[in-house]
Design the sequence.
C-alpha cells in the first residue's frame, strides 16, 4: 500500500515525521492541526482531536508523526518558514548591505508583532517550541544565520563592513542581538518599545560593522 512506502529521511523536515515526505495525507493532517492549534491552542489540542477532524484514527496519525510534538513541529515549521521566506527576500535584494541589515530587524519585529496580535495561538506554539528546545527552532536559527552571513559577506565585498573579525563570530553575534525580536515572550514583554529598540540595536550593530 502507498501508505507503507518509505523514503530516505529529509534532514530539512521537522523531527518525528514518519511515512512518505510528500504524501497528501500528511498535508491534510498538518492542515487540520494548524486549524486546531490556531483555534484552541497547542496545549488544548490532542492527537485525537486532529484525527477526528479529518475522519481518521489516532493510530493512523501516528503512521506519519510519532508524537503530538512532532505535529506541532510541522505546524511551527510552516509558521517559521513564512518568516524565513520574507527575510530571504530581503537578504537576496541588491540594495546595500547596510539597508538590508536594518530591514532584517524591522521585518523580524513586524512579523513577531503580527503573530502576537493576529495569530496568538501560533505565537504560543513558537514560544513553546523555544522553551522546549524543539529541533525546528535550531533549524530556523541556522537558516537565519545563513541569511545574515549572506548579507555580511556582500557588505564586506562592497567595502561597507570591516573584514578583521572572523565572519562566523560576526554573524553569530548579530543573531544574538536579534533574540529579543525572535523570541515571542521577550518581544511581548518589551512590546511598548519594540520598534524603537529594534532600530537602536540595528544602529549599534551597523556601527560595529563599519570599516
Sequence:
Amino acid at each position: 500500500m502507498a501508505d507503507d512506502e518509505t523514503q530516505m529521511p529529509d534532514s530539512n523536515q521537522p523531527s518525528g515525521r514518519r511515512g512518505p515526505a510528500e504524501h497528501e495525507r500528511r498535508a491534510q493532517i498538518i492542515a487540520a492541526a494548524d486549524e486546531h492549534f490556531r483555534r484552541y491552542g497547542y496545549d488544548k489540542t490532542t492527537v485525537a482531536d486532529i484525527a477526528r477532524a479529518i475522519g481518521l484514527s489516532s493510530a493512523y496519525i501516528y503512521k506519519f508523526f510519532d508524537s503530538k510534538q512532532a505535529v506541532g513541529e510541522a505546524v511551527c515549521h510552516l509558521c517559521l518558514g513564512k518568516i524565513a521566506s520574507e527575510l530571504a527576500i530581503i537578504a537576496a535584494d541588491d540594495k546595500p548591505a547596510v539597508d538590508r541589515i536594518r530591514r532584517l530587524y524591522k521585518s523580524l519585529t513586524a512579523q513577531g508583532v503580527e503573530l502576537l496580535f493576529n495569530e496568538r495561538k501560533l505565537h504560543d506554539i513558537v514560544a513553546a517550541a523555544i522553551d522546549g528546545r524543539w529541533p525546528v527552532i535550531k533549524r530556523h536559527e541556522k537558516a537565519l544565520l545563513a541569511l545574515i552571513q549572506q548579507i555580511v559577506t556582500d557588505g564586506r565585498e562592497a567595502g561597507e563592513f570591516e573584514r578583521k573579525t572572523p565572519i562566523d563570530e560576526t554573524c553569530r553575534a548579530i543573531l544574538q542581538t536579534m533574540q529579543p525580536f525572535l523570541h515571542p515572550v521577550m518581544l511581548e514583554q518589551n512590546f511598548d518599545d519594540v520598534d524603537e529598540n529594534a532600530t537602536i540595536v540595528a544602529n549599534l550593530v551597523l556601527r560595529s560593522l563599519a570599516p
